[in-house]
Amino acid sequence: MDALKKAVRAKLPGGRKEYLISNNFPKKSRNLKDLHRDDIKDTDIQDESKKDVRPQTNKIKIQDKILITLLASKLKIKINQVIKKATALGLDLTVKDEIDSDEATIIASEFNYDVEVDTYNEKLVINQGITRKDSDIKARPPIITVMGHVDHGKTSLLDYIRKSKVVDNEYGGITQSIGAYSFSFEGENLVFIDTPGHAAFSAMRSRGASITDIVVIVVAADDGVMPQTIEAINHAKSANVPIIVAINKIDKTESNIETIKTKMSEYELTPEDWGGDTSFVSVSALNGTGVDDLLELIVLQSKIMELKANIKIPSSGYVLESSLDKGKGVVVTLISKEGELKRGDIILCGTNSGKIRALIDDKGKSLDSSGPSFPVEILGINGLPDAGMPYNIVKNEKIAKDIIRNRLAAIEDEKAFKFHTIDLDFINLDLEQNKIKEQPFIIKAATQGSLDALVSALYNFESEKCRAKIVHSGVGTINESDFMLAESTNSIILGFSTSLESKVKVLLDKSLVRCETYKIIYEILDRIKEILEGLLDPILEERIVGHAEIREIFNLSKQGKIAGCFVSDGKAIRGHNMRIKRDNEILFESTIISLKRFKDDVKEVANGLECGIGFDNVGNIGEGDVIEIYTFDKIAQKI
User: How many CB atoms lie under 10 A from the CB of residue 577?
Assistant: First the structure.
């Protein structure tokens, strides 16, 4: 079987099938008739007298390793057929298995495909020609990520440190996009990343944790440990970085520091004064109490960590945020982990690239270059990369284009793989049989990070009965194209921290398209939840309205039988459902079609009063029977 794994089957003209053994490639080949192998059936051997012409061979390109499911996708063959063929060749495979290029070549040849192994190594191409010297490794500033629950004072704390008014420009007490700020304290440079506090921004907060050196978790002394506090703890732990707990709002009288310490200890963040290894510091973003103590702890921790980076090699790092500015075009905020970022560099980020034509620091100053850890905005990239995406500087535009071409091919492979492996009939069956209701949305946001987090939160609302369908999502203003798409797909347009173009406002006034914009994340999430719940049919819940005792029965020539009743509790209401009960047994059910108080027709009769009740389906009723009046309330379903 080892020999078979290393073989490439070739179907040659004249009906012969040969193996070219890759083990130093044998000097001669053998006709399959001469191979004594039990796993090759006689039916595989063509009669050499039949001069069949070999069909044209297709080609596929693969890496050194490939999932068997991806191979099936590339071959355009059902996975079960590929596994069946592999089994016939002696390969014991399942749908989860990964195979090497030799095995893939053998299987592909059975379906008349030639295999080309892609030896392109992106990492080698990026690092080609880069010389790393120990003498170029220097100390770098720490990157500190501030996390915590909404309204616990993260932005206020940073605002106090920077002595600038950032909080006034925020809405709803929540930071709407990741901001990065650098400043000096006691001669040491510190870089802070302020992450949004709402639970919906877990994705952005997670990205912040992945690039940080130290995490400061802010907990309000009056509120204590909240859901987003716990999420922040988990993100920080997954990043495997030191954690400092800042207990904020100690100026409030209802603060309870010891309770917070106890709760944080449950998450393995035990205070140093309790014998643990987590630094706790009490602060007030209002009056500055304890802020210097916090910064001293950060400086001390960074010195212990001895953070260093090569400052001479081409820069590499991460995207903090990207947005579309009408005047500037694509604006991307970067933070470098190592190397020097220079104006004129060719930057590569995901499937976007470009020549950096401007470098701007967090103070708004134009730069020629920037070093590790410092946040900068750049102009010149040709698209919006996702927040948290790594970037590299490459030698020239050709290298960037080659890498992007390779990445796009991988993306297409992934799309084809997903399409090939997902059973579309199953999805349709799920929608039709279970009658899942969908609401199409078009989502626009000011920044890519906000958009990613919002789209992620939108899918969290999916239930067994309804779901959101995102027809389109993008960064920028709500434009005419968004309107036209919404009109043709019955979508609702939702904008977050963005605006409507003037022409769209005119179009909306003349159409039924719904378009709503929000500046507070939890308001837009509440609205989405409300819209989806509106798709669901209400649940009918029975409610007893009252009871009436039958005391006399009147036979009227025109109206039939009328029950003379006494309302013992609740009320009797015309048009409501009713049931006749005798000894708690239901005799029949009907509807109150007439209700009289003496000779007057009335809508309802209250408890303790006599009345005449007329109804359909008059059965065997008698004095002493009880009429139970009830209705159905419509209860809105929740998701």
Answer: 17
